[in-house]
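Model: You mentioned two targets. I'll fold them one after the other.
Researcher: Yes, keep them separate.
Model: Target one:
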Amino acid sequence: MLKANVRNNMILGKKIIYGAILCISLSGCGGGGDAAAPSGLTYTGLTTQANLTVENGEQISTSSYQNGGSGEGMGTTFTSLSEIEADVAMVKPRTSTLAKVLVAAVNKIEPSSSDTFFSGAVITESGDPIKGDCGGEASFTMSTDDVTGDFSGTMAFNSYCESGETINGSITISGNINVNAGTFNSMTMTMTSVSVTSGSETSLMDGTLSFNPGATPAVITMNMKLKAGSDDVFWMENFTLTIAEVTGGDDLTMEGRFYHPSYGYVDITTPTAFHYSGLNQYPFPGTMVTAGSNGSVVTLTSLSTTTYKIDIDTDGNGNIDHSDNGLWAEL
């Protein structure tokens, strides 16, 4: 575990705060780079519930799976199966990539316990840079009330890489610590234009993400806006990810509301968790249900780590109006 608490001269009377707040390239600190703070993402698309049809159901479902679209074809209907396959095959769900890397970074921090400090002190700590397992680093500074355990601070990610995914940007953190045990009870992260790179694609994300560090499985709730591969901004509202580490990989479930700028929102559930083996980007098994207006439903089912199936029920009567199979990786 990486932790180097600065303890000398920490207590002056009963209240003391010391340490420097992080200065990073995205926060307008001067001395190189863009001095202006980044502007956040704004969702300007439709906010009514989407009506899922044979023409748009495949695109909305695959975009929902990815937590956002990218490149050409977004805002238009698919004209061939190959377009659907190209969109689905690009990456794992983007917010799950972000969440998994952030949870991994936070779990390398050991907050201070209260046994060596006067009651009522405010403890400020920072540590040696947290190294990513595939490169880069993250730094943190946090101040904690030694009585209540409430804390606040910042984390800065500089090409921080876990499992092949890379994060850059600044995140504000807050939450609560068990001051007796020196462990996190809860954490909320707030971010503006944090970048997440997976393969050759970089996404920008704004919003909040809350979880209990160290809990298994990891349950992450978020309200997040996302931009990837185009000018379109997508929105995940009251979205919950559950990531369970299992033998040979991870199980992922998603639940919440996804807004597509061209069509409006759909509600997502995953009756069967998506299972990712190792670094495989294509899951098996797994089922995601996307629900629109007037009872319309699209079901995306993974048939194997190479094939998937999409079924569209346009009116909720249980009859499948359109069905397609495809290869995850066919571009």
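Model: Target two:
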Amino acid sequence: MTPRAPSVSALPPAARLVAAALRVVSRASFPVLSIALVRATDPPLTPFVLGQGLLALALLPELCARLVLRAFAAEVRVEDGALRIDGALQRVELARGALEGAKAWRLPLPSAGLSLRLRSGRDLGVGLAAPDPAALHALLAQAGAAVSDDAPSAWAHARAACPRRWWDRPLVKIGLASLLPGAVGFSAHQHIAFGAFLGEYYLMGLGAWLESAARYGSASALYLVLWAGCFRVAVETLTWLGAGLAPARAAGMRSAAERSAALLYYLSIPALLALRFLA
């Protein structure tokens, strides 16, 4: 069987720069919008405006980055000692020994990846982006290239190897977790504005009551999307810095960071809710 590497994008420098910039904008939007939400008081940042901001600054850039990676998707394999990179937009074939080595991208943007260096001393001009470059390491070794197993590689492998727990699923992290603040906010609104939990229902009908419930539920979900995004940015940044200091401990740091972030995230929801009503 011919060795192959899954989920690889063969990116020229310009495509990598574009995809990386899109991902930076997407990730940076979470802390930026969080600061704007706290500082904007007159007028406040409404859930509708927040939703527009998340769509324009987080979701759309991320989708565009994924489209770039998908457009340059390629199959990397070794046949008879030759390295072949086959994609719709990139096709490269290198005989065994043509590659001097591969170096992991120090900044894992738009994802973890490798730069390839030829025996002539030139860069290949096509980088290989992969969530976990470990499979690429084995292929490149078969093609006669020296691969350094450094801090960026340790970070990428630890990230790919860390299992995704049930508490980190969007349905739980956003959907179920938003029920508590949504229900508390909706109940407070009903009692303050209408005198009872079913006050709006008795006064204006079931449609108006359900509309208010949906409004508070969607606003709660939007706030948690923003909050969860900030936690994700913090986890990726801290584990990347930690892997740079101690590559051998990257897997342990990733596991500890993921568990700690999940615990703080879920504990912060009732804590922030209490601060909101006590303020």
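Researcher: Noted. Anything on target two?
Model: The longest strand covers residues 4-11.
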